[in-house]
């Protein structure tokens, strides 16, 4: 089973980060108003980033880390250089687990 950490752009321009096993279903839930309280009043939302994991705890870890980031760092993840930020995070995580 795969787990996804995802980021949504809300109608007011803010970002929301979460994790799920089914991004299509989860985004539909957010857009129906039955998702998180944060997104209910900021619809519609659109998926702007996601990363797949085989480990649920790793997906939850990325979600928690990204939620603590300032908006500028979240925007950087979405930029053309965002892949470099992901790789740096992966390297940091790998060092922590060795």
From TrEMBL:
Q: What Pfam families does the record point to? A: GIY-YIG
Domain GIY-YIG residues, every copy: 1-76
List the transmembrane segments: none
**Classification via PANTHER family:** UPF0213 PROTEIN YHBQ
Family designation = Belongs to the UPF0213 family.
- What this protein is called in its record is GIY-YIG catalytic domain protein
Tell me the organism's taxonomic lineage: Bacteria, Bacillati, Bacillota, Negativicutes, Veillonellales
